[in-house]
Design goal:
alpha/beta; TIM Barrel; 2 domains; seven-stranded parallel beta sheet; three-stranded antiparallel beta sheet; 31% helix; 21% strand
Length: 352
Amino acid sequence: MGELSLNVIPYNLHFAFEARTSRSSMHDRKTWFLALSRGSEILALGECAMLKGLSYDDRPEFEAFLNSLRLNPEALLEKTLSFPEWPSIQTGVEMLRAGAENSSLFKLFPGPFERGERTIPINGLIWMGSEAEMKHRIREKLNLGWNCLKLKIGSLDFTSECAIIREIRREYGNSDLILRLDANGAFSPDNALEKLSILSHFDIHSIEQPIPSGQWEAMAAICENSPIPVALDEELIGINERSRKIELLEIIRPAYLVLKPTLHGGFSACDEWLELAEKMETGWWVTSYLESDIGLNAIAQWADSKVAAGMHQGLGTGSLYTNNVPSPLISSSAGLGVDLRKTWDLRPLEIA
């Protein structure tokens, strides 16, 4: 049979355009694949999609720690082994465990989505750009029939961004189009409520992370007084202990949590966030974190086992890359689904 071995495969994903947020601009992103093998047979795959400049585990020793896992691959299958300080690695390792448990590279959380029986509703993501670029991207999505858009805001001046949103609402009412915003912490505690008041005239479903994370009292005041429901995203980074999670939710009391396994500690950590959120009647949805289709597939399957019917998830990022791993995933205005006529192609990874 042979002993288990672990291969760590770095891979550069190239964006089809300049991907901008209020904090950074990206043309490509590096990710790392884990391949657990016995002899020449690959038993399980995982993805550790740490994102430079944004991830909690963006530290100089990241790759050294990741490669150290090769010394004892057997231990990775033990559920008691966890890496709370390395959320993207925890996610990749949990993918390995799920794959090994289900004897499959790609069936990690079996269910209707994985079997091609259900499509998950998703929001269309509008990246930052010039005013003309954003209008063009919005028009493309609308012409394709998207009924839920998420706009990243904060890089243009606020007046221009309001003009873009106003233009959308002139044509599409709230019953025709759900609008979500993601500020990525672009507002300040001093001006957030004023800006949220202005934005509320456009029937906004929610806004993610209006101010930078770590300001719990200020965020609590915003959540209490905002005319737009506030969702937490970056605020959840590095909050690993259950008691701290409870404390954050009790102090801030957000309307929603945006759960990203790669960023927030893996599937098990997001399970805990989800459990606590539901106890406090806090809404939530699941979002990918610019993974390749290998990571996106796992997150979508996990989300499929959790989601409430009809809630749009943030799982439309697989089409962003020119060199993604070829897969049966299909993303459109109808949602994220699986085309059973297509197969996975791992040749770009050159797994030895």
